[in-house]
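Readers of this paper often ask what the protein records in our data store actually look like. The remainder of this section carries one protein's record, kept here as part of the documentation.

:::
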Amino acid sequence: FTIECVMKLIALNFKYFTIPWNLFDFIIVIASILRGLLEEIIEKYFINPTLLRVVRVARVGRILRLVKAAKGIRILMFAYAVSVPALFNIGLLLFLIMFIYSIFGMSFFAYVRKSAGITDLLNFETFPNSMIVLFHICTNAGWSDVFQALTNDQPPDCDPTIISPSHKGDCGDKIIATSYLISYVIITSLVVVNMYIAVILENFSQAQEDVQQGLTHDDYNMCYEKWQRLDPSGSQFIRYDQLSDFIDGLQPPLRIPKPNQLALAAMDLPICEHDRIHYLDIFDGITKYFLGIFNVSIANSEANTSIDIKKDRPKDYHPITTT
C-alpha cells in the first residue's frame, strides 16, 4: 500500500488528492504508519492497543474498489443510491404505522400475562418495548407466539380476577388481538416492506434501460484507456494519422469500424499544428456521431456523459484546419 501510494504521488503530484479512492488509500497508509510508530506511546498513555488494530480492518474496504470494475455491481449501487430518498419516505411511513399500533397495543395489551411471545423485553407495557415487539412482528419472526399470548383469555392461561387497570385482569382478547395483529402484519409485512423491494427493482430496471439507451461512464472510461496508450505522455493530442485506428479500436457503441474516413470528415474535427487533434474534440465528435445515428436526445445524453466540452484547451491549442 505504501509503495503504491508513493508511486502515485510521484506520478500525479497534487492531482492524486482529487481522486476519492486515492484519498481513501492515503488515509489508510498514514493511519497504519502512525499506528506502527506510536503504538507503544498510545498504548501506555491513551487507549487500548486493541482499538488500534481496527485500522487494519479498514484495509478490507479496498475491496470496494472492485465496484469500479464490475459494471453489474455499479448498476446495483446506482439503483440503491437513487432509491434512498424513496426508501427514507417508506421508512417514515413504517415508523408512523408502528407508532400508531404501539399506542393501541399499550392501550389493549399492557397488562397481558407474560407467556409465549410476551416476555420481559417483548411486551406492551412501555412505548419502547411496544416498538420492539412491532418491529419483531413486521419481520414475520415469531409473531404467532405473540398472537398466542395476546389471545389467552381464559384460566389457567390468565387470571381475569387480578386487580389491574384492565377490566380483564392479565388476560388478552381474541377478537381485538386477531384484528390488531392481522391488520398490522398485512399493512407492514405484505405492503410496506414489499414497497422497499418494489422501489429498488423499479430503479434498477430504470438504470438498466439508461445503460442500454445512452452513453455511460463506462464508455468514456474505455475511451480514456485507449487514449492513454496513444498518448502516454499526457499531451492531450494525437496525430491525425492515428485517429482512424483509434476510433476503430474503440468498443461499441462508440466504435466506428474502418473504413471510417467519411465519418471522420463528417465530424469536422479541428486539426492543430503538426496535424494534431485534441482529445476533447474527438470525444465530442464521436458523441455527436453516436447521437445522430441512434437519434437519442442530447438532453438525455448529457445526463449520462462525463465529458466537459467547455473545458479549457491547452495553450498550444491553435486549430488551423478541420478533418
The chain has three domains: 2-69, 73-212, 217-322. The chain has 14 helices and four strands. The domain at 73-212 is CATH 1.10.287 (Helix Hairpins). Residues 174-213 form the longest helix (40 residues).
